[in-house]
Amino acid sequence: MPMCVDDHGRDLLRVLGVRVHRNRRARQLTLSQSLYVGDVLSKHAPYVTVARRFDAPLSTEDKLTRDQCPPEGSQERTDMQPRQATYMAVVGALLWLASFTRPDLAHAASVLARFVSNPAHVHFLAMQRVLTYLHHTRDMGLRYSPDVTADLQTYSDADWSTKFSTAGCVAFLYGCAVHWHTRLQRSVSHSTAEAEYVAASMASRETCFLRELLLEFGRLKPGPTTLFMDSKSAIDMAFDPVAFKKTKHILRDAEYLRDLVARQVIVPRHVPSAEQVADAFTKALPRLVFHALRDRLVCDVAH
C-alpha cells in the first residue's frame, strides 16, 4: 500500500515505502527506508561484500569516466552484457533511495547512472562498493527536530576537476536536509569561480521554490535566505555588477543571481570548505571529510 496510518488514524506510518516515525515526547520526526534497503540487498546479495566495510560510497582513488566504457565488439563489452540488467536495477534503486531519505548516496548514484547504457567492469565494481556501503548503513535516514534553527539555509558547491563541472546543492530546514541535488553542468566552465557561480545560480532557483512553498505554509521568516558558498570570487561576482565585463559569457546566470541578491531574496555568505556540506554532492571525499559532512545530512534512525 502506498500509505499506512496507525490504528488510531492519527499518525502516518508509511508512505511510498518510507517509514515515518514520530517521537512526540522528543518532538522529533524521522524518515527511513530500511525495509526497502533490505529488499535491495537481499535481491542483489551475491554482489554485497559482507566481509568488507567501506566508509564512503565511492573511492577517491578511482575516477569513473565514459572513456572506461568498453567499445563495441570488445571482450569486456561481451562479458558485461549479462550484468547490465543488474547494474541498471541497482542504480535505479540507489537513485530512488538518494531522492528520498539517503542524500549521502546522491553523488554515487548520479555517477553510476552515467554508465547504465554501457557499464565497464570498473563501474560494476564501484556499484558493488556502494551496495556494501549500503549494507553497513541500512538504518540511516533523516531526522527533523524543532530544537534547532528553523531558518531555510542553502549550501552550494561545484567540482571543476572534470570537463563538465558537477554542481551540488543542499537546503536545510529545522536543521535537516529538505532538498538536495547533484548535477552535471551543461556548459564547460573556464574557471573554478565560474563553476561555483553557475552552481550557486542553480541552487538559488531551488531556494526560490522552497521560499514560495514556505510562504504558502506561512512559515517563511522575514529577510533573505542565506546561500553558503566556499568561493569568495563567486560571492564577489554575485554582489558586484562591475564584474560583468569579465563574466559576460555567463550572462543569464549572472543576471539572475545578481537580481536575487539585489532584491535581498538571497544573501551569499562564505563558508570554509571543511564546512561546505554541498561538497558531498560534487565528488568522492576522503573518509574523515565524508563522515563529518554525512553526519550533518543523515543519522542512524534505528528504533
Question: Care to give the gist of this entry?
Answer:
This protein is of the alpha+beta class and 303 residues long.
3D architecture notes:
The protein folds into three domains: about 5-30, no CATH class; about 35-140, no CATH class; about 145-300, Ribonuclease H-like superfamily/Ribonuclease H (Nucleotidyltransferase, domain 5), CATH 3.30.420. Helices cover about 40% and strands about 20% of the residues. It is built from eight helices and eleven strands. It has helices spanning about 35-45, 75-100, 105-115, 120-135, 190-215, 230-240, 250-260, 285-295, and strands spanning about 5, 10-15, 20-25, 30, 140-145, 155-160, 165-175, 175-185, 225-230, 265-270, 300. A hairpin with a 4-residue loop joins strand 3 (about 20-25) and strand 4 (about 30).
- CATH architectural label of the largest domain: 2-Layer Sandwich
Oligomer: single chain
Helix-strand makeup class: alpha+beta
CATH class label of the largest domain: Alpha Beta
Radius of gyration: 21 Å
Order of helices and strands: EEEEHHHHEEEEHEHHEHE
The percent range for strand residues is 15-25%
Can you tell me the CATH topology of the largest domain? Nucleotidyltransferase, domain 5
In CATH terms, the superfamily of the largest domain is: Ribonuclease H-like superfamily/Ribonuclease H
**Domains counted in the coordinates: how many?**
3
- Let me know the number of strands: 11
Question: How are strands sequenced across the largest beta sheet?
Answer: 1-2-3-4-5-11
Give the count of helical stretches.
Answer: 8
Average residue pLDDT: 89
Helix content: 25-40%
How would you sum up the global shape? Answer: globular
Main sheet: strands, sense, barrel: 6 strands, antiparallel
Low-confidence runs? none
